[in-house]
Amino acid sequence: MKTQKIRTAVRWVLFICGLALVAVNFLPMWRIDLEAPQYPEGLSLLIQPDGLGGSVDIINGLNHYIGMKTLHTEDFPEFVILPILIYTLAFLFLLVALLNRVRLLHFLFVFFLLFGMVAMIDFWRWEYDYGHNLDPNAAIRVPGMAYQPPLIGYKQLLNFSAYSIPDLGGWIFISVGVLLSLAWFTEWRNQKLLKKMGNTTVMSLFIAIALMSCEPHTQPVQLGKDECAHCRMKLTEKAFAAELVTQKGKVYKFDDISCAAGFIKGDKIASEEIFGVYFADYIQPEIWLHADSCVLFFSPEFRSPMNGNVAAFQHERGINDLPFASSGKTLSWKQYLEEFVAP
What we know:
343 residues, alpha+beta, 2 domains, 5-stranded antiparallel beta sheet, 4-stranded antiparallel beta sheet, 12 strands, globular
């Protein structure tokens, strides 16, 4: 196996791909174009490996009115990491072409595929965060409306048509991926590696993909169907719902934050098994807030399903908008566990 070589034509393809990836670091990789009657010329957000470009200032001005966070390059650690990773990929392409080993080509193929998957997942999460975590005091508020741009393709956002597509750098990156896939496939077929390796490479790839897809995450609440893991009642109100996600991805749902606290204080699950605890945002229940980063407000006026009478908010200013803001108490999740739930 160690002596198996890569064909000369494939080595040249790898060499060209490595040089092309160097060029990607100097080009926009992705773009989100916005069209609306008041902007006939259109607006564009250009996403480069090391920062943002295009109509950033105008888009930030528009985002302010609907409560979206403004976009700043320095707020994204990805713009520091991404250029390094792209240069690393370019170096690996050149190294594999130089060392001329089929086994290294397999490693490069898997690494490139996982890199692309992680990048797209991170991009989707970034879009979700900016489109859903809105300022409740924004000038324009549409109940139930989120402003998450499409990952790829078209989506209507109020009176704006949003198009998310690769830019020149992205198309080069995609082309490199296609060429690498063809190179990997031709070498595998030519040298009959599948049979000799006992499917090791293919199985490793599928295991890696499975691990990526099994990352723990919250689940949507189905009112009238989901059962509270603590009190066994059906979930009836999203605004007070809570979820506990384990390290293995199992989700425990609760109809009241007090039920989640009682479940945890009752030692029904070991603390090291908990991936995270999440609460529905009282103002926008479709948004999940991490227990350690949100604000809880306790008030008898809530009258939650199990009389826990506590709700979660992304910001304290959301609490101030409540007509009964002066009749309750603001506290953290840790304080709530200590003060309101018996050990």
